[in-house]
């Protein structure tokens, strides 16, 4: 008679060959189910990834409830950023082989929240991942890539620029702070909406922190910059805060919009830009071509390998607990990067 432990192990092995676990969105009006899904095999230019970790983003939440501009047909497996190793490759794949450790961004915006995922080497962003970057950190690379794309031209003009970084969720904001301080050698101020979040910013050794809920953000920024304002404002929040950000600039400053974690897309006041002789840029990593995304992310990976970057606060959840993860992310108190672990 076989022991329960043996039968459990045997069942797990058989399932790994025949099926794999995946998070399924049956409809945008329902939650997420964890189901056993049939085994998949890569086509000619595809690779099959054994997923170790997957990053959960607010765009994923919006896609699940049908409010995002990408609206896949239901049912679907959500998630677009993952790290893992290659399990098998299609017959025409030359660059990759079984066992390669990789980072992958799915251009379809779907497929990552599963133990296995198919990626197309011709359309998806697939990059080699060194062993200096652990699987928990890897899904944060995309946030760094967005920030790096937006900052590299501005910050390379000269060292010692001053930055005000507006963040309510932490992922993009903390990545931007890391880059501004440790790569672009900037003078960094941080702002958020609670004392708990400001403690995380202080741990990042910013010069000063501000709580914008007191209504004194503009006044406090100018007070801490001797009445001049900052060279750059990096806004990851959107809404009315974007307008306050413009007022925090020095004459000739620049505001960079990286996201709208508030859920409100800001309205651009052209007159205010004129008054400050200011300029504005919007960055969406997914809107760039594949080559540019790969170049940006490769540069970020190299900066991690060389020890310049520290990484983000990571909140880990097993795949089976994805609904708890999604509920936590809906809370205004959630801060940092949410990561699903598959094993």
UniProtKB/TrEMBL annotation:
<dbReference type="InterPro" id="IPR036291">
    <property type="entry name" value="NAD(P)-bd_dom_sf"/>
</dbReference>
<protein>
    <submittedName>
        <fullName>Enoyl reductase (ER) domain-containing protein</fullName>
    </submittedName>
</protein>
<dbReference type="Pfam" id="PF00107">
    <property type="entry name" value="ADH_zinc_N"/>
</dbReference>
<dbReference type="InterPro" id="IPR020843">
    <property type="entry name" value="ER"/>
</dbReference>
<dbReference type="GO" id="GO:0005739">
    <property type="term" value="C:mitochondrion"/>
</dbReference>
<dbReference type="Pfam" id="PF08240">
    <property type="entry name" value="ADH_N"/>
</dbReference>
<dbReference type="InterPro" id="IPR051397">
    <property type="entry name" value="Zn-ADH-like_protein"/>
</dbReference>
<feature type="domain" description="Enoyl reductase (ER)">
    <location>
        <begin position="27"/>
        <end position="340"/>
    </location>
</feature>
<dbReference type="InterPro" id="IPR013154">
    <property type="entry name" value="ADH-like_N"/>
</dbReference>
<dbReference type="GO" id="GO:0016491">
    <property type="term" value="F:oxidoreductase activity"/>
</dbReference>
<dbReference type="InterPro" id="IPR011032">
    <property type="entry name" value="GroES-like_sf"/>
</dbReference>
<dbReference type="InterPro" id="IPR013149">
    <property type="entry name" value="ADH-like_C"/>
</dbReference>
